[in-house]
Amino acid sequence: TIMNLNVVGDVIADDCVGGIIGYASYSVNITGCTFQGSVKGTGDVGGIVGMCCYSRLENCFVSADIKGGAAGGMTGFTSLGNTIIQCCFWGDICGNSSNSYVGGIVGICND
Fold first, then answer.
1. H-run or E-run covering 31
2. pLDDT, tens digit, for every residue of 33-75?
3. Contacting residues for 111 by C-beta, under 8 A, at least 6 apart
């Protein structure tokens, strides 16, 4: 469980890039966290988590610029039973190619 964590900065990497976590899997609970800055990568990129499976995001806030292949305000890629509740994104999101998947909260949702 990650609770009430506030991060300010810029994160740049290739794949599974998040403002707080790169890859969250199997019962990771992220509650009341905030990220402010920018997150950039070539693959799954999100304001809180790059790639998320079997996890929960609740009451999180992101104010950032995000760029990636699958880019979302909370997570770039979500799959297999995730829950996202009362989260908010403020900023700009863009794909890094014409094949990109981009969403205000989630880039790709594969549940």
1. strand 29-31
2. 999 999 999 999 999 999 999 999 999 999 999 999 999 999 9
3. 78, 79, 80, 81, 82
pLDDT tens column, 92-102: 999 999 889 99
CB hemisphere CA count around 101 (13 angstroms): 15
How far is Cα of residue 83 from the mean position of the Cα atoms in its chain? Answer: 13
Contact 61, 87 (CB under 8 A): yes
64, 22, 107, 37 alpha-carbon torsion, rounded to 10°: 0
Residues sharing a CB contact under 8 Å with residue 73, sequence separation 6 or more, in sequence order: 46, 47, 62, 64, 66, 87, 89, 91, 93, 103, 104, 105, 106
Q: How far is CA 95 from the centre of its chain?
A: 14
Across-strand partners of 65?
A: 38, 92
CA neighbor of 50 nearest in space, from 111, 110, 106: 106
